[in-house]
Description:
By secondary structure, the protein is of the alpha/beta class. The chain has 7 helices and 6 strands; from the N terminus they run ββαααβαβαβαβα. A 6-stranded mixed beta sheet has the order 2-1-3-6-4-5. This is Large ribosomal subunit protein uL4.
Amino acid sequence: xxxxxxxxxxxxxxxxVVMPESIFGIEPNTHAIYLDVKLYLANQRQGTHKSKExxxxxxxxxxxxxxxxxxxxxAGSIKSPVFVGGGRIFGPRPRNYSxxxxxxxxxxxxxxxxxxxxxxxxxxxxxxxxxxxxxTKTYLNVLNALSLSNTKTLxxxxxxxxxxYLSSRNVPKAKVTTVDSVNTYDLxxxxxxxxxxxxxxxxxxxxxx
Length: 209
């Protein structure tokens, strides 16, 4: 699979890059993608939810009415879940939602996500670039030049570039990450991947380890 290298003005530089088959040419494993995305979303949950059960309610323990002769059901405590202000039955308790998946499954999931985007022709390779200063308008100009102003994009850089990151931070539907930090969720969530030319060799090196 060959792709043309574009510059930030959206022009073809005349260069071609061969996309690594070990990443972009594999048969996507949808179940691995599902597991990795599920893990990512589970890790976003705080798990601090808590409601009081009847033993934790601060109310009187006095029997609220006599046992018989009222015509209604027996009631021994105002803490009962059937009364307003009573405890909740089997309420939520703090818990950790994370779970474990193997490193090879995570790697397969990420490569599968790249392969899905490759099959959908949703990848553009950009010539290495940088900004002199962080400016949102500069990043918007790049997206407009690539005709991606209203598209959910993910830019993958070889290393952290503060000027590019800060320039993109306030742009809706735009996200910037690095090769080391890219994850399956971000890849699947984006409609278009923008990969820096210098990031491709790092991707291939990581996969062949």
